[in-house]
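Sharing a chain and its predicted structure for anyone who wants a worked example. Both blocks are below, sequence first, tokens second.
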Amino acid sequence: MQCLRAPYNPAVRSARSSLILALTFAAAALHAQPAPLVCATAPAGRPCEAFHFHVQPYRFEAKQHGVELAGVNQYATQAACDRARDLYVQANARAVDHLKTLREKYEADRVGPCHCDMTTDKALQSYIPDPQRAAHLRALEESRMRLRERLLDNKVTPDAALVRALWTEPPATPELGGPKIAPLPQSAPVAVITAPEDLRVTNTIDTAKPVNAALDLPLLDIGATEAPAPPPVPPTAETTVAEVPPGTATTTTPAPATPQPPVATQPPAEEVVVQAPEEPAPVPAEPVPAETAAETTVGTGEDTASAQETAQRFIDYEIERIQNVLRASSVIEDESVKSKIFEAAMQRTQLLSNLRSLIEGSGMRSRLAAAARDAMEERDRLELIGRLFGADIRPHWAPANADDVLLEFDRSVTEEPERVLRDSTASITDKKHALYLVLAKTQQPTEDQLLWLASIVEGFLQ
């Protein structure tokens, strides 16, 4: 038997090659896409009580997307969740597109689809306890504040639509915008009855003359040593001038008008001299040592730019360290320990944010900026952390295991860290622990707080 072979057709062979290449590129693109931001599948037959969507904010300092946040929102219906998600995506996209027009390398947040919220059921693996949920909210709020800072740095005013849209919340009753399920009740018309005693006479035009009151008071220069001479007294009035001690006000009382015989000339009026009270001599300020003045002077120009570069280099390294801790904690099976590690990481991130503000605000002449600039090696970094927050913080700052990042302080320091930091009788170790807690728990420190914390840090680094 002889086999028959189909004739060679170049067109068919080219079409097969194109199909194979298309399938290969589609599989590679599907593999490169990030995993969907959704919870685990709900058990069969279980009704959905709430809906939410996950957010993975972009971290500008790390140049990548941060941790996935699942406990930041919750809605009663699917429609309300979709409406809130659309508002968030649109506001974030408009802000990022504006930054891209200014050649800012900023990416949009990753937002998952609305789905059933599985983070409230303790029996499921995706359950999120209340401490971790609060940490998720703080992380999302910090991401919004970082995006707002980038907009303000690019000359966008705080009342602009781009900035205000970042905090746009969905309507409290979203069902009002949807279709009406039930018609409005029909009410029977009721006749309006007006009692005669309820009627009042109204005046359309007020014919009464308005009451005008005028008061003419002389002007007196407080800082002058000699007042200008008053105008000549008219013939129909008499002015009585009494000597008063220096520093008290004088009163000019016009006498009642009496007929006077005509005179040829009017005598010149007497001058009234009011002496201003003597000001106390200024107290000379105490001289400030040159070394202290140089340390507290905030740098401008090149010093400010150098302080920002120093803070960027130091803080970025430490943020990468805490990101590695979060990646290592993913293999821990105990959910309570994993939640505590996540909360400690969020506190460390807030501490680094406030530490960046202290370095940039103090300038390159401060001890903090100089120490951060010189801390190039791991040993120097841990030495600086020990001087700021205590020597016992070093193994927790650079942990060998993920659970070593957890810290335990005295109860008196944990409850009122700011009071311990101001207490002159507290030990230096408690003060350093209190400084760690104040920097880790203060969301938006004021300018006065930053100055106060900068002075405490300079004292620790002496």
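Comments welcome. The longest strand covers residues 51-52.
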